[in-house]
């Protein structure tokens, strides 16, 4: 059986996905996670603290999934190209839910530094992921931008079409 903390994080993911950050209240999370209010506050001081922790857990999960998906690829170029297949995989797995980080970014005020810094850190790590693979600042940023826009467009249109087109562009760029 999952711990109260795990149930809270899992329920938070489901509710943020279905309703968004702003429309999800602490009392609903407590109720649906089937935890006591005291248990919630034992783990999280506020909804903002919960969101920060949720994003940190999501970051670890997402990069673990990405690295597992790419584990069989030998060279940096094939890993880079295959990263776009990972987006197709995640869209199938999570029904085109998009990026948790960008979804929350669209709902928070820009002066919410605690949540914003976690989102920025995730995106910086993704940008560095491509930089480490390709060791070319300009090329890796170009691919990062194609990757990010592919996530957004696939969520918006519930389609992998632009992911596949981006993959072809990336293949041509790095040959």
Protein described:
This protein is mostly helical and 175 residues long. 78% of the residues lie in helices and 0% in strands. The protein has 9 helices and no strands. Helix 1 crosses helix 2. The mean pLDDT is 97.
Which helices and strands appear, and what pairs or packs with what?
Layout (H helix, E strand, L loop, with lengths): L3 H16 L6 H8 L3 H7 L3 H24 L5 H19 L5 H6 L7 H22 L2 H21 L3 H14 L1
Helix pairs in contact: 1-2, 4-7, 5-8, 5-9, 7-8, 8-9
Question: What is shown here, in short?
Answer:
The protein is built from nine helices and no strands.
Shape type? elongated
* N-to-C CA distance: 49 Å
What percentage of amino acids are in beta strands? under 5%
The mean pLDDT is 97
> What class do helices, strands and sheet pairing give?
mainly alpha
How many DSSP helices? 9
Poorly predicted residue ranges: none
Biggest beta sheet summary: none
Radius of gyration: 18 Å
H-E string: HHHHHHHHH
Helix content: over 70%
Number of strands: 0
How would you describe this structure in keywords?
mainly alpha; 9 helices; single chain; 175 residues
């Amino acid at each position: 059986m999952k711990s109260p903390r795990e149930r809270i994080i899992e329920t938070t993911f489901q509710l943020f996905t279905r309703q968004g950050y702003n429309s999800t209240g602490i009392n609903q999370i407590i109720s649906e996670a089937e935890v006591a209010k005291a248990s919630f506050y034992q783990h999280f001081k506020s909804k903002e603290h919960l969101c920060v922790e949720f994003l940190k857990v999501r970051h670890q999960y997402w990069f673990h999934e990405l690295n597992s998906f790419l584990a069989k690829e030998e060279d940096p170029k094939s890993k880079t190209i295959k990263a776009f297949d990972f987006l197709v995989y995640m869209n199938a797995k999570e029904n085109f839910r998009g990026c948790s980080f960008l979804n929350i970014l669209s709902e928070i005020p820009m002066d919410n530094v605690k949540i914003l810094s976690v989102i920025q850190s995730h995106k910086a790590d993704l940008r560095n992921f491509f930089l480490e693979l390709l060791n070319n600042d300009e090329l890796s940023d170009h691919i990062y931008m194609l990757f990010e826009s592919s996530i957004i467009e696939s969520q918006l249109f519930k389609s992998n079409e632009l992911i596949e087109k981006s993959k072809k562009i990336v293949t041509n760029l790095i040959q």
